[in-house]
Amino acid sequence: MNEWIAEVGAENAELLATRSRTAVLASEYRPKDLGDGRVSYSKRALGAARELSEEEEGAITEDGDGLRVWVGDDAFDLDEV
Questions:
Q1: Which label site among 20, 52, 66, 78 has the fewest CB atoms less than 10 Å from its CB?
Q2: E-assigned strands of the chain?
C-alpha cells in the first residue's frame, strides 16, 4: 500500500497535477490526475507534498481527522489504497 487517493474535483485535480509546486518535480514526486476529479499520490509524491508550507496549494496535513490535501481553504481526505 504505497498510494493515496483523494476526490478533489476535476479543477483541483488538474491544478495539483500541473500547477502546484510539486508538479514541476520528477514524475515520481508529482501528484497524478486520475480523471473524474481524483488525484493520487505515490509514497514519494506524498513525501514531497508534505514539504509544502500550509499556504501552498497541495499542502498535506495529518491530524486526528486523518491525512488531508489542501486546495485553498478546502481540505480533502486522502485514503490509502
A1: 66
A2: 3-7, 32-35, 38-42, 60-63, 66-71, 74-77, 79-80
**Cell numbers for 22:** 510539486
The count of other CB atoms within 10 Å of the CB of residue 38 is 16
- pLDDT tens digits, residue range 27-45? 999 999 999 999 999 999 9
For every residue of 52-67, which 3-state class applies, written as one string? CCCCCCCCEEEECCEE
C-alpha cell at 3: 498510494
The per-residue pLDDT for 21 is 94
